[in-house]
Write a structure and sequence with these properties.
With about 290 residues, the chain is of the alpha+beta class. It has two domains: about 80 residues; about 170 residues, no CATH class. The chain has twelve helices and ten strands. It has a five-stranded mixed beta sheet with strand order 4-7-8-9-10, with helices on both faces. It has a three-stranded antiparallel beta sheet with strand order 1-3-2. Strands 5-6 form a two-stranded antiparallel ribbon. The protein is globular. It starts with 15 loop residues before the first helix and ends with a strand.
């Protein structure tokens, strides 16, 4: 701040204790679902009142429901008070982008505990940042990440779930200003990664991704048939084509708005990603 420069890293070793707290909470019955939900969307954690007792007996024997786990996150300082709903519930939110990154990294570490897979995730993200190629990232999602997610208790998978899964792999505040559901001239983009002003000297790309979701019921196929279906057959499914068209229309609007906002400095690559169930991805580049 004194030198009027961006810090190179926003997340430093002082937050290692917070990382440990998130890993502890993820092992509680409602913990993993709540952590993912908090990252998934703003104001997603609502409770009627904060729990006040966290003694040894409470930690060992009290019901570890959503209210207990959310209260623990609040008292740990990794959720903060965000207001009250019209129904009188307390709203708890992630306090800032630094903690948001901590959530993203913690989820990735939980789901990809093996060092080899974590390294692979970083490589496919770099291919997107550096070369504008989203295919390796989508293949990694299908082959590795989605298979782990499918074993977790996420009953209501939707576009937000898919977007958040990508966000956990792509979050990079060293190179980017990371935005999810960015408001641009009264419109919303799904995931926008704008190169930080102090990083414009490097040959990394600005990224815009629009996500859509097609349920198995909408697609008219079951999971086994979907797994065996080749890419071309997947692309011509009517429900997939409809969502792709919606994504392309959204991207066209948001590209123009981003160009008006940031001008000629943008090196923008934009993509539509349609998830079919939590099994397959159909993606395309749109520039």
């Amino acid at each position: 701040q004194r030198d009027c420069r961006y810090p190179k890293k926003l997340l430093d070793s002082n937050l290692a204790m917070d990382r440990g707290k998130l890993h502890y909470i993820a092992r509680l019955p409602e913990g993993r679902r709540l952590i993912f939900g908090a990252l998934e969307k703003a104001e997603s954690v609502t409770i009627f009142e904060l729990a006040e007792r966290f003694g040894v007996e409470d930690m060992l024997h009290a019901p570890k429901d959503t209210g207990f786990v959310a209260s623990l996150l609040y008292y740990f300082g990794i959720l903060t008070f965000g207001g009250v709903t019209p129904f009188g519930e307390l709203v708890l939110t992630i306090p800032n982008l630094v903690i948001r990154k901590l959530y993203a990294e913690s989820i990735r570490e939980m789901l990809l505990p093996e060092g080899k897979e974590g390294s692979m995730a970083r490589r496919v993200a770099q291919v997107l940042y550096q070369h504008g190629d989203i295919q390796p990232l989508c293949e990694f999602m299908e082959q590795k990440y989605f298979k782990v997610f499918s074993n977790r208790d996420y009953a209501s998978v939707n576009e937000l779930t898919v977007k958040t899964a990508f966000l956990t792999l792509l979050f990079n505040d060293t190179l980017y200003i990371m935005e999810s559901e960015t408001e641009i001239e009264r419109g919303h983009t799904d995931l926008t990664m704008i190169v930080r002003p102090d990083m414009r000297q490097y040959r990394v790309l600005d990224i815009l991704i629009e996500f859509k979701f097609v349920s198995l019921q909408e697609a008219g196929v079951d999971g086994k048939a979907l797994e065996k279906m080749d890419e071309e057959a997947l692309r011509v499914l009517p429900a997939v084509q409809k969502k792709q068209q919606e994504a392309e229309a959204g991207l066209a609007r948001y590209r123009e708005k981003l160009k008006r906002k940031f001008g000629d400095v943008l090196r923008l690559e934009s993509f539509s990603v349609v998830a079919v169930g939590f099994e397959r991805l159909v993606f395309s580049s749109s520039n």
